[in-house]
Prior knowledge:
The complex is a heterodimer of chains A (about 350) and B (about 300). Chain A is built from 15 helices and two strands.
Amino acid sequence: MIRLEKRKEPSKFWRIANPFLAVALTMLAGAVMFAILGKDPIVAIRLIFFDPIFSETFGSYSRPQLLIKSAPLILIAVGLAIGFKANIWNIGAEGQYIIGALFGAGVALAFFPAPGWYIFPLMVVAGAFGGFLWAMIPAILKTRFNTNEILVSLLLVYVAEKILAAMALGLMRNPDIPGFPGSRDLRRYEAAHNAEIFANTGIHWGVVAALIAVIFAYAMMTRHMLGYHVRLAGQAPRAARFGGVSPARLVVICLGISGALAGLAGMFEVSGPGGQVRIEFASGYGFTAIIVAFLGRLNPIGIVLAGLLLGLTYIGGELSQMMLQLPSASIQVFQGMLLFFLLALDFQTNYRLRLTRGARA
Amino acid sequence: MMIGSINIAVLLAALMVAATPILLAAIGELVVEKAGVLNLGVEGMMIMGACVGFIIAVNTGSPLIGFMGAALGGMGLSLLFALLTQALMTNQVASGLALTLFGLGFSALLGQKYVGITPPRTPKLDLGPLSEIPFLGRALFSHDIMVYLTIALVAAVWWFLKYARAGMILRAVGENHDAAHALGYHVKRVRVLAIMFGGACAGLGGAYLSLIRVPQWTEGMTVGIGWIALALVVFASWRPWRAMAGAYLFGGVVVLQLNLQAAGVKIPVEYLSMSPYLITIAVLVFISSGKARGSLNAPGSLNRPFHASN
């Protein structure tokens, strides 16, 4: 008889090992999937995971891309992870990302074409504020009316997408090119451009912000009282309440932080790599960041690694689309599988298999 | 009967069609939650159903076989959820999210060759003289068979949960899994079956979108309807007939805003089309606050993992 037995304490070894195992299993399953699609599995896997960095032909293009794609993922995931730890589920980061971008772009377009060093910092503040505001909707509805934050934050993603479309077609449309949707290109407006800090590295202000966010989150979670409260509320909500942790306050703080960070990510994207407010601006970073947070074990350092890996799959996905005509959706499948494998493997973190003799007691 | 340029009978008929996919998904999820499981993967299972149903219907030329395939497709994905949450004891919220993300990607991959194709037509059910009745005939009795089957399904679920012995066991498992286990019921088996039922229903709902309502296949075509179905279960306080009332109310909002768009009201299309989501949120707020506190009716063991220690 095989029996599942709960461990007294979660296994530290498997906690660390599982993400790596999950990646390996995803590669295997992905190889099978590519073989079924009629593509050479080894070539496909190499194209997704290795060529973006090591290839001589595309390396020079795709290496800077790695930081460009990973920075928003890390920035968003760091914020989400804090909430997830406290069992507060903000899954609408995609919406907060969009609203942050709109706020940031809105400031830039309002000042256009004035020069000024203060414009970009103002956009940063506006972006964070936009994301914060959008996250406050589920937070306040949760604390005031006990409304489920999962559903509200997610439904607001669709609302944000509609606002984005309305802005791209209406208020923020570039008046100089009539008939086309989309705003002015912020990359051509120097005071608002989130340019590369070092040429050809992909390091823009969003990367710097992600790094700062990781350090702050790490310090907060390990050294600050707030981090302790977050962990306590997640692991023992009753004890936390007796210990004087206000659940409502925690909801507002967790959603606020993750919303502001997602808004920042959106703002850095629209003023840099994205360039303009377009209908297709949102590219799913807000959802992929959920996978990043889990794969990184809700730990800021882990999230950096996970963010880089998933950033890699974004570029690898584009490459394999170009080289192998793989459908763009296969990368989404890949990311979904990764989360599945991770969750499935985690049972051995909390449980162990025991062989027992004879019938069950 | 007409109000302005809007024909009320046609509006009612469109409302029933718009409500059906949401209702299908919601009634499935209602049973799942009654068994104490929160499956946030409704959107993923729906889109799988939309995709699988569409592919099968196009290849066989039969919408009916398409619907059956969609139910199996949704069920297949739900089995993955059952494996994770029931056998491997994973977090239900995270697993449901994984299901949605995976379903969206996988369906896009499967369906990429089917974009832009028209599926075989699902015939209207011939109700003879009933559909000749003025007004009511057009509004109520001129639909495809799925609209009526969905209503029958709501009735069946209501009866099952209220009167059937198996339904009572299912509720017991959802209300207090430890007690149900102590009484000798197979908590996990009941839950897996409920999850499968939910998956099949979500799959059917998705196929209704791709085969009848739209009818076409496009990537991500469920646009949040699965999430709205989840909200609807809360709104209905886990009661089948209320879920139906909610779905029809919601269908009304969708149809009305589409009609306003068509009538050329001076509000930009984007603002009109966000109204279903905003109204869902407003309804959620109303139902979970104050005296209307529907969430008090939530199954006691909802979203709590069950592991028999011996």
